[in-house]
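Re-run with default settings, no changes from the original entry. Doing this only to confirm the output is reproducible before filing.
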Amino acid sequence: MGIIKLKRGNNANLAGLSLQDGEPAFVLDTGKLYVGNGTDKILINPDQANAETATKLKTARTIGLSGDATGNTSFDGSANATITVVLANSGVAAGTYTKLTVDSKGRVTSATQITAADIPALTLAKITDAGTAASKNTGTAAGNIPVLGSDGKLDTGILPALAINDTFVVANQAAMLALTAEVGDIAVRTDLSKCYILKASPASTLANWQELLTPTSPVQSVAGKTGTITLVATDVGLGNVTNESKATMFANAALTGVPTAPTASAATNSTQIATTAFVKAQGYLNTSSIIDGGTF
């Protein structure tokens, strides 16, 4: 009795297998039997549905998703099919949140905004951008950082009260009351030639402006004149007085009345004026020295 031997091997090697006309081959891992026809190999025991040669399923099937994602599509094997997935709502409203709660599968179950209670206590050493002032205590001692009082100002022991005054020139009261001024500011009223200082706010209240008084001058006028004064000779009773220099005062002087002059000493022999007293002292006025010249 003879033994019939068949070619055999696994499906991975089937593509490279060449069979002669009528030669059989058995695929060990799929159970398929092929016989050669001289040019190719023919499958003798195909699946009932003819899956190896079918172009589509006899009956199309619907493939669907359920649970946290839903969607479905019809598939008959003739072409690729795509399922449009719709995610189930988690119950969290759309928005931007800083605090999330997720379940063991990573699904968001709640979302809220972070609060101060969610932030753990941190030491200053763990805060890199706090600056050097954050490590200082408040107060008025050396090394402290001073804080403003309820009036919005530093304690006068740290910074004495300061006033920076402005001066405003205004034409009338209405303009003064319309100023945006602070306490200590001064308004110069050109209509009154007076100055006012703001002693309290607001500047729109006339009673808050205090007139600045100037000392009374003991000289009220000069020669009956006030303001910018220019005096002339008649203002001081010198209407008959002319302004003469020493060089011209005695040139061709015409004296009247009884003018006097210093009496020169008896031995004077100069161009000095000789007074009657000088002449008499020389003996020229003695009666005994008068020579009678006779008559005509």
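Helices lie at 173-177, 246-249, 276-281. Residues 276-281 form the longest helix (6 residues).
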